[in-house]
Each structure stands twice: as structure tokens, then as C-alpha cells.
Amino acid sequence: MCGIVGFFKTGETANPLPTEARLNEAAALLAHRGPDAGGVRLWPDDGLGLAHRQLSIFDLDPRANQPFSSFDQTVHITFDGEITNFRSLKKELEEKGIRFKTETDTEVLVEGYKVWGLDELLRRAAGLFAFALYDSTKKALTLARDRAGQKPLFYSHHKGMALFGSEIKALLSLDPALKQMDPDGFHAYLSVKFVPSPHTLFKGINKIPPGHYLELKKDSRPRSVRFWDPFSSNAFKITSQGDALEQIETVFSTAVQRRLVSDGPICLFLSGGMDSGLIAAHLDKTRKSDITAYSLGYKDFPAFNELETSRLIAKKFSLPTREIMLDSAQAIDALENDSLVLDEPHSDWDWIPLDHLSRQAHADGFNVALMGDGADELFFGTDLMWKGLHEFKRFANPFLKTMAKIVAPVGHRRFDRLRRMAAGEHPYLGSSVGFTRSQQHQIMGPAMKGHPLRGWGWEHVTSLYSEYNKMNPGDDIVNLICFIEFYTKMGEVLLQRVDRITMLHSLEARAPFLDHDLIELAFSIPGEIKIKGNRLKGILKEFAARSLPPDIIDREKTGFSFPFNEWLRGELGTHVENAFKRSRLFEGGWANRDFCLTLLKDHRAGGRDNSVRLWMMFDLCRWYDRWMA
Fold this sequence. Notes:
- The chain is built from 27 helices and 17 strands.
- The protein is α+β, with helices and mostly antiparallel strands.
- The protein has three domains: 2-226, 4-Layer Sandwich (Glutamine Phosphoribosylpyrophosphate, subunit 1, domain 1), CATH 3.60.20; 241-379 and 496-553, HUPs (Rossmann fold); 563-629, no CATH class.
- Strands 2-3-1-9-8-10 form a six-stranded antiparallel beta sheet, covered by helices on one side. Strands 4-5-6-7-11-12 form a six-stranded antiparallel beta sheet, covered by helices on one side. A five-stranded parallel beta sheet has the order 15-14-13-16-17, with helices on both faces.
- Strand 6 (127-135) and strand 7 form a beta hairpin.
- The longest helix is centred in the C-terminal third of the chain and has 28 residues, at 477-504.
């Protein structure tokens, strides 16, 4: 894992090209992503500059340092991530006569591009990646991002100059004028708790969508290409539960095995649930006994602990364990730590326990962590997804639709479902929902009133229905819900959190469930098989029964959860109240301070649970005061 940043002149520009010193300064802001080495190279005749910060996982030979160039100096790359099947690709290339000078996946990308071309290279490459690749023979720069969007890549293209980087802060360093909030991005954040790709909260800064690449050429319009979707390969044909179980066994085994490549120690973030438990079970099968399991507990809310079950899993598979405890005082310390206010707000509060685990794992000498992310979204694993399945039935009921048109009022969020039903809108919006339309006039400040909003948030969800129907026509509602979760909560919220927090501590996060072969397999399993027996993650639980005890498989899901709801009624609530009272977000007119304080007062008094919306606004305040005000 690494940090990348650079620029490319695509046409006439009034701005001078960044100097080597300025590019170095931008790269230095990404040093946490790559503390082991760094490099900057400029090609003035091409109007190109590439910079890199390196986290060394394998092949510490200085010849592997980036930016990296092909032997004939025609192809240059700066690359963040991990090509998990690079050794098999390297073997294919060697059979074609290619000779390598390093043992890195970076060189495999460069030589693979030269032999196969970009589209075929991306079809073959597995793993998590974001890279900028320049072909001097075509005078073209390609910005590419992995299929699931595990690695980030941001860019700005304006008046003949393209800037790009792993994190927004690097672009702001190169062009401070980009530090402007986009009203449409802000509205999207209020609606769905994230800003959908390709947009961001910053006016003029975009992100490469998952499974896409952007091609930039001199004096040409940028070309965005989608090179993958979960249904694009048609590699799996699942017609029965037996087919599904056998394929999961094979593909999951390969997915875990691919993520064990490292010249350094590897740890496992073990929550005590089924997903990370399955990874532990596979490690036992491969006799990978040198991996330490990290588990989290809460000192003042033991009900959130999963230590008892994580101990059972670790003991069963002979994994050495490290138990980390967290309390509300430590949470407040994290929230007061300016270095943890990242350049995008985090609408998911579970970044705090993840930060706690990552910090300790790095301190203990680990630079790779295995994680169970992705299983819920791919295999239909949450109560909200189950409720969504029933929403489709309600929205299809003619009697309920007629009644909704009669009784649906406007102005209170508890009736938002009736309003949507009456309007003929889609029944399921995903589990990442912020303020409903009937609440938004209450939360928006005067700076937003009257702005002709383009609705990026809800339109993104609506577009997913259309995309799914084009890719997989039919009436498989279970996989439609999985598709919506994959491209909303998981892709835009959870993976953002995992990348930024783990990389903040120079830790590479690897998620076997997000192997693209496993993703394609999951979407090829018919919904009735996926939830057979009317069970969440039914097929995955059948698979888990081969290696995990029933009390692990059937226990209520918790994960690395965080008692923000409960802590809000104590000292943490006072901390949030003070943040609302002093934040310049409200002085800028973006949001309504009084409404936020009312939500908090109601929550602390034991009324409606407003914790999700309170966290959204609290973290937005932290972000705005750090990066915009």
C-alpha cells in the first residue's frame, strides 16, 4: 500500500507546472500511506510529474522504488495497492520472453500493459489498486481504480491541468483554490451519508468510480471507461445449493491464499463473528500459524464485547491473540485528535475502534491486516436488508399504495415511506440513509436555501436500479438489494473508512471477501439460494457449518461495533454539544445549528434514537472546521 500524487498538462494553462519541491510537499502529506520510501520524477516535455510514498510489503530492493519506468522508458507508473495474482501473471509474461529486474507487482503492471494493453491487463489483474500510468508513445495518462473501490483515487481537471492523488489533501496542497464546498455534494451527504462517485464534497475534485479508469490525452476530452461490473464475467453458473457451496469453498480458499503474500508479519482483525471466523478457519487449513488475531472489547459497555467468542475462535484455530480495550474517555481523546480529522467526513462511527486496533497492530510491528469486510453486502447479511426485502412487497400492494396516496403527509420523517410509496418511488434506498426529504428543509441552512440542487444522493440510488436491470434483467430482489448495498454503504462509506484509517497507521488492509472472483460468484447465486431457509447469509452459514461451531454461526451480529448511541447520553454527549455550539459550519450558513442541538437534546433525554444523524453532523463539523473554515 502506498500514496500517489501527480499532475499532467493536457492543454494550454495559465498556471505554471508544479515544481519538484511542490510535488514533494504534496507527497509528504501522504507519508503515513508509505513511510518506507519516496520518490518524485518530472518529465517537463510531456508536462508530467509523478510522486510516490511507499509502504514496503515485499521486495525491498531499491530498484523497485517508484515512480517506476519500463526498461525502454516509454511507460511510467505510480501505483498504490496490491496485485494479488501478480506471480501468476509474471509467469505468463516470462513465458512470452519478458525478463524482470524486480520481484514486484509494479513491474508486472508495466510489462503486462505493454504486452496485453490496458483493458486486457485490467481484466487479468486481481487485487486492490489505484494507479496512474503514462504511455509516452500515446501521450496518454490513465487513472485506474480497482473493481470494488478498495483503494481511492481523486482527480481535478481544469483549464488544461489534471491533478490526481490518493487523498484529497494532496490535491489541495498543489492547488489551494480547490478548497471550496460543493452545495450538491453537501446535499448528497445529508441524503445518503456520502457523496457518490464521481463527485466529492469539494467543488472541482472528483474520484474515479470503482471498476473504472479515466484516460487523459493532450487537447482531448477525458474518457471514462467502466472495465468491470459484478456480472461482467459470467464465469459461474449456480443452479443449486450444492453448486454454490462447492464454488464458495474453492473461490474463498483462493481469495484468502492470495492475501497471504508478504515478506512481513500478518495479523487478523477477529471480531468474534462468522466472517472473520471463516478467515481464521482457512488460515488453520493452510497451517498459517504465525498470524496474530486482534480483538476489541469495551471497558464501560461489556454488552458490546465480542471477546468471549473471539477467544473461542482463536483457541479452536490455535491463533495467538491480542485483546485491545476501549472506553469512552479514549473515544473522546480520538475525537479531539486533530490528526484524525481526515479530508473527508466519516459518516460511520466505527472508525474509532478501527483506529484503536490499527494503531496497536502497527505499534506491534504489523503492516498487513486481514479483515472480514464485504460478506454482509454480498451475501445478504443485515436486518436492514431483510426489512428492505419486505418493503418491496409493501410497495407492490395495490391497497397500501392507494391508502398511502390518501394519508401520506409531508413534513415528518416517520411518514417518508408513505410519501415515497404514494409517489411511486423505489422501495429500498439502501442502509446508508441520512436525512429524509421531509427533514432536509429543517437541517439545511440559509446558504443552501434556494440552491438548484441536482440530487446526487437519491439519483445515485435510483440509477443503481437501472444499472442492475441492464446487467442482470429479472426479478431477483435479493441480489438487487445486495447490488445497492455494494455500491452505496460498502463502496462509498465502509471502504473509505477502512482505507483511510488503516493507512493512517501504515497498515495494509486485505479483505478476502472482496476478491473479484468471490464477488462475481456471490452475485451469480440466485437469491432464493442465498437466503435459503429464510436466513440472513443462509448459504454462507451453510458453508461456515463445515468449519465453525453453531454458536458462532447463529449468534447475533455485532462486529467491531461502537456504543456511540449510549455514550451520547454521557460525557461524549457534552463533547458533541460543544462541537455544535462552536463549529463554523453553521456560521457559514450550510446547516441549522438549532436543529442539531434539538436532535441531541431529544436523544439525551431518552426520546427518539438520533445517533446516526447526530454523528453525521458532528463529524461534518469536525471536517469543516479542519479543512474548510
